[in-house]
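pasting input
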Amino acid sequence: MKTNDVILQFTAKIVFFIIFLFSIHIFMAGHYTPGGGFVGGLLTASAIVLLILAFDLKTVQTGFNINYRLLVATGLLLAVGTASFPMFVGEPFFTHFYDYFELPFFGNTSLHTAMLFDAGVYLVVVGVTLTIIQSIGEDE
Amino acid sequence: MAFQILLNFGVAFVWMFIVQNFSGQGFIVGYVLGLILLIGMRRFFRSRLYIHRVWAAIKLTWLFIGELIKANIAVLKVVLKPQLDMQPAFFAYPTDLKEDWEIVLLSSLITLTPGTVVIHVSDDAKTLYIHAIDCTDVEGEIDGIRTSFERAIKEVSRA
């Protein structure tokens, strides 16, 4: 007996986009305002978890066919790479660089290597959260 | 409808490139010009102009705000009454809306107006089960929803 979850499923489909965009915004805003990699990653994971709740694991996996363990590894590599890169140019471990660049379309933008480290944190958080939820959810 | 909006956006972008004004102001001017052109070209489209549907959506919003205020006052009366003589009721509401988003919109509007809550949508999506806090006249309630919300939603979704 399959019940009709039309309200939950339709709402989840729409709200997913809003949560995902907000998570990207929180991730980008981490330097000057509250937010950052950890919160952004959790929000992204929660958007995907909402889809999993409204539909089921298999349906969501056909859409987001990502190996989340690889995502964790990628995030760790990115973080370690960002932290150890200064050692090759004679600076201490974890020195961050930043500069102002004239980008096309964006104008004068300050780019900071802390952003890359944050991206690593983001990937690790998304990967770990969804790995946990998937392994619990697939348990029969 | 979607095609008309896309066309309107396209005209707005063409206008921005013609006058070399890549700001929000240029976009809005181009959009309004495109709208005037679309109104002029309306007999070439198979469906209605999308402006009608936007207007219907605005009317639905107003209807909802009015119903919200009225229903809140009704529930306030029920709450503040010294005697507890309200008549809670469950009733089935047969809907003839087809699309998912229409059913979700109708259910949300019914739930957001105080005094009525949608409990469940039947599996063939033809019946909504509604709980009302104070309902002596089920037929009247069903009629009220049909003539207000459902008619307005149909007005929005009509091609």
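fyi The two ends of chain B are 8 Å apart (CA to CA).
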